[in-house]
Each structure stands twice: as C-alpha cells, then as structure tokens.
C-alpha cells in the first residue's frame, strides 16, 4: 500500500501551533511503523525553508525521492479575494499531482489550511478517485460560528472546507470528543471516523535544570517569582484568558506575591496589547503577568519543568496537546472539565469548570497551597502521559487505511491518473469574479510542467557555462570536454543527458554547442531549461564568477527536489591565497560557501581533495541542517578520448633530438607560483654549475604572479641548450615530448589530482614527485618522492635519482593504476547514484 501524506500542516502558519507539531509527529510515526507499506510525502514549494527542515527530520525514514514537491501558482491565500482564481486552479493542480503519484491512500495532515498563507488543500475538486483520509482536529469554528466566522470571506472559506471534508473517505480524529462532534455535526457514518488520539514528543520529559540555567531563563523573560504557566496553543477567545486573569486576581495576596502568571506562545503585537489590556481590566498589575512570545521547543521543555503549576482553562479543544506535554514533563496540571481535556488529564480532581472564575481560582489555590496535591498531580501526569504514544496513533491510522483499502478494492482507482488535457479543461471551467492575467496563465503552465511526471527519462543537466563561452584549453576544461563526451556517448540508464549553460539571466540547453561538439552539421536551438524534480544538475565547469548571480536560483532548485552536484578540482585558492592574484581567493571562497550550502553532493577529483573539503566544511559549516555528501572519483588519462589538440611546430625535430641526447626532466603545467618552477630552475642551475649534463623541459603557458620568473626564463643563457620552455603546445606534440624525456618531475606544492603523473606512466616514464598526499594517492609506490622547498634539496633528489637510474633501481611507473575517461565517467556516475547502461 502506498500512503501519501500531504504535510502542508507542518509547513504553513500552523507549524507554530499544535496542528503543526501533531502533523509532523504523526507523519514520522507512520513512517516508522509503515512496515511493508510505502510512505510518500507531499510538500508545498511556497514554503521553501520548511522543506529543508522536513527533509532533514525524515532522513533515514523516507527515501529522498519519495518526498515530492508540489508547485502552485501563488499567492493563493483565501483571505485575499483577488487570489480566488489562482486558489481554485491550485486545487485542481494539486489533485492532479496527487493522482500522478498513484497512492492507495492520501492522508491530509490538516485540511483547514490556506486562509492566511499559500497552503492549498481540497477533496474532490478535480477528481473523486483518490481515497482520502483527513486528520480532524476539531470543528470549533463550525460549532461556534458567531465567534469564529465573523466575516463573509472567512465564513465562505471555512464552510467550503467543511463541504470538502464531507467528501473524505476517512476522518482521523485526535480525541473521542472530536469524534463525537464530527458524527453529530457532519452526519457521517461512525464507521468512517476513528479516534487515533495524540501524544507528546519524546523531548517533553522531566529534566534537571541547574540554578544557573533557571536564573538565565528568568532573566531572559523578566520573571521574578515562581511560575503559574499557560501555553494556550493559540490566542482566540476559547482560550479563556478573561477567565484565567479573573481567577488569578481572586488568589490571596500571598499567592499573588509568590507567583507570576506566565503565558507562553507565539503572539503578534496586537494580541499582546489586547492580553495586557484584559489583564489590567481583571486587576492584575504589570509585574503579575509575563507574556513570553515565541520560544523554541527546547526552551518550552525547560519552562514546563520550571513551572510550579500548569493551568489550562480552555473552553473547547480538539485534544489539548500542551496539557499532555506539561504532564509528560512532570508538571502539576489542572484544566477544564469540557470537551477533550478530561480525556487527556484523566483525573477528575484536577478539573474545573472553565465558565466559573471562582471554580478556577479555587482549584489554583488548592494546587498552589497543597504540596501533596501537587505531588499527586505530578505523579499522575507522568503515568497518564505514558498512555499516549505517536506510535500507537500511527498504528491505528495505518490499520484504518489497510481495512478501508481492502474493503473498497472495487472502487474507482487512481492508478490511471487523468491527463493534462483534462486538467486544463477543468481549469478553463473555473468561473470566478477574478480573472487570470497573462502572467497567471504562464505561471500555471510552469507549475503543471514541473509537477507532471515525465513520460521520458529524468534529465542529467551538465553545466558547461565556461566551455560554451571559451575553451581555454586548461586542465579543467580538458576534464570537462572528456567527461562531456563520455556522458553524451554513454548516458546513464533512464536518463537524458542535456548540456546547459547560464546566459546571464537563465539556464538554457546548450543545443547548438552540443551539436557542434559531436559533429552535427546543423546546430539546434538553445531553449530555456525546463527543470523537474528528480533531475540532476552537475557543474562540470568551475563557474566561480557566476556564484552571486545563480546562488539563489540554485537554492530554489534545491528546495524543489533537483539534486545539485559540483565537481571540486581543489580548494587551494582558500588554502593558499598567496598563490593567486589579489581578490581571486575571495571569489573562490564565495563559490565554495555557496555550493556547500546548496549541494546534494560535492564530488572531488581525488580523495586527498575530498579530505581537505571535509575539513574545510567542518571548520566553515554551511547554513543548512545537514551538510552535503563529499565523495571522490579519479580522472581519466587516455589522451585519445580527451579531444586532444593537434599540431607540431617546425623546430620540433631539433628539440626532440636534443632531449634524447641527455637525461631530460619534464615539467607539465601552467607556470604559476604553486607549481615549483622557481625551485626547480634553481636546482637545475646548481646541477649545471656542477657540470652535470641534464635538460629541463617546461611545458605550460605563462600564468600569474610569475613575471620575474618568466623574464628569467626568456633570458636564460641555457635556453635552447639545456633549458626548454614550450608554451601552449598541442597534445600531439606533448606526447612526443613525453616520449623524448627521461623522467617527469612534479614539484608542485599543491594539486587536485596530478594528471601528468599518469600521462608519464602511460609511456613508462619514471616520476620524481613532491611528497604530497594527492601524488601519493595517484602514484603510490611508482614514484620517487622528495621533500623540502630549497633548491639544494631538490638538486640532491635529482642527483640521487640519477644514481638509482644508472643502476636501474629507481621506482618504475609501469603497473601504476589509472583510468580511462570511460572508467572515470563510470566512477562519477556512481557518485551521482546513476546506473550505467548495460
């Protein structure tokens, strides 16, 4: 059985109230107790921050792909009549979306949502073929319309929701009192309505507060005396503040001197002023009432444990969750003798008549004056709270779902969802005073496209924004070209590979570039990318310069269920900013912080880089509930599959003859500070001064911060004799240089991978490498390592290697493991959790 939970009750404004806590706790318990059943969640994209927190709490319980995001044409809040067309349209879109997920049961955590915010709920607006169960908290506004349905808009909204409620197949009430009210008020068959009750979360328990912590809490909220606490879970009239304030005013002067009345809950400024006014009218002085405003759950638990007495004078409740929370903390509790509250408290002696201020005051006086009575309340409350568990509530709900599905197997099935054509036809029939704008129509089309399950495969979107603009023929772009080719030629299973780029305002499919890349004679049209949940975005390029422009959009994609992966080549820019031009490090750090915040995963080109990234994230934790995964893969090294460049210069034969005539040591890489060119040149100058006949070959373009070195190279008296600097040569020529060289020398102080080591090994060329983790990872025992930053230390290392070479006892690169680009792409697909095609 597939159970689909619409969890908007834990996203909307209700998340700050008992409804939100109930919705989330029950959903978690259903996921824990699902057994063989599948549990899926539906979340509303209009509440992005709540999506992140909900995903976090369900980690390990529900696979991420079963948390589905519904896109709606907000704003839809029904308090604003101008939203009416969008609201009705959103209801159609939502039900069509639910149908596509083919549930056996849809559980709506809270139906009465969307009056003041952009939640959208309905039953039977677009389809009657969904088996729907609704958590019913209460019908208080229906039963007290004169107090709650005070204007036409509010009344129309609520009564329409009630009509929708009557179309539900099952009602799950949170108390027996709510169940009886539903049977009587809605005239529904009792067999369709079950009481699954409620529970307090495990965090609500007795705790020991230190004297220091007690004083901190008192000082934070300006509390000077012992506490009589009320956590109302709302601030409407049924919460009976007038009765509580009047009852408090009737306490003896001694009790009023010893105790302050503390109201805990999220409250706006207007209601805060109103409560202060009510208290003053009841005769309370300013120092007798404290209204805390919102506090975290952690602080709420502390306050329950800090309070001497918890009073709950509400006139009408669906359950009364704060009562149970207080009892679970061992707080003495007294409360009203009406609706569901006696079920929760379970002790007649602890009850009072909420209509009688004298009765409330008398019970408060007894509890505050009689220590043994308070102890009785505390012990009873702890035992009573144990009778209520979320697991038990969830098991009752699941059992009800199972029986209903079994008993109604012959009912119309949602396994064959209605088409988009039927959806658009239904939307076209909406007849409201408000009419859609052109922007509304476009937005609705976007929502339908995003919500609709693709008939074809999901997309793997390869961001090649830098390569589309220019091919700098750098090491990174060689990687981008190679992996791009592999993914296009060997796409993963059930996946459409689509290269994309950012054009300054939006992402577009790189159709024209891709067609040219694979040799098509006529390029395609670059259309705007259509993102859908379950798509995978992979940044092949390093696009640090785009960070500020795309960060918020990437967060938007992250929220909507698109998986975002970024290849990290190295993080040397933040580790050694002195190696790059001023300002470069700051740009890179902004990018690194950005991707750490939004990424599903960071895929590094070596495990050495991955370890450095993990350390950096630990030291610079991103602003998110759980960090990205950090994994690694190795780059490929087969030049023929990396789109090699061609071309041999006219003087190549002479150069190659010279290199073959003496031991020649080859350096490959851009001439920049970290690469060790200065140390290497000085080491070879020392060797030449000692009369040692060796050549130094530098292959790489001029980089940055090396003006002095470059001038020295260009004017060196050994240039063209024992020193060769080959700038920007082709891959074809480089392969010949490798073949003519005796040994690769890799003195770089920092690298992400070390591709030249593999290129040397492919041609069985020995390797001298600086002893850094990434070179050890790539070459292992197949290289001769050196340490130190002085030219003497490197000169000694070369001399030692030459001696070993004479005896043929130097480390051999033959047998060194390396990957083809095909194998590299397979490793990368594995990190993206994509299956290669068989």
Describe the 3D structure.
By secondary structure, the chain is α/β, with parallel strands linked by helices. It has 4 domains: 2-199 and 412-428, Rossmann fold, CATH 3.40.50.2000; 211-387, Rossmann fold, CATH 3.40.50; 454-636, Rossmann fold; 646-818, Rossmann fold. 43% of the residues lie in helices and 14% in strands. The chain contains 34 helices and 26 strands. The strands form 4 sheets. The protein has a 7-stranded parallel β-sheet with strand order 3-2-1-4-5-6-7, with helices on both faces. Strands 16-15-14-17-18-19-20 form a 7-stranded mixed β-sheet, sandwiched between helices. α1 crosses α17 and α13 crosses α16. The protein is elongated, with a radius of gyration of 35 Å. The two termini are 31 Å apart. The mean pLDDT is 94.
Backbone structural class: alpha/beta
Q: In which range does the helix fraction lie? A: 40-55%
Q: Tally the beta strands.
A: 26
Highest-level CATH class of the largest domain: Alpha Beta
Low-confidence stretches: none
In brief:
With 838 residues, the protein is an alpha/beta fold. The chain has 34 helices and 26 strands. A seven-stranded parallel beta sheet has the order 3-2-1-4-5-6-7, sandwiched between helices. A seven-stranded mixed beta sheet has the order 16-15-14-17-18-19-20, sandwiched between helices. It has a six-stranded parallel beta sheet with strand order 10-9-8-11-12-13, with helices on both faces.
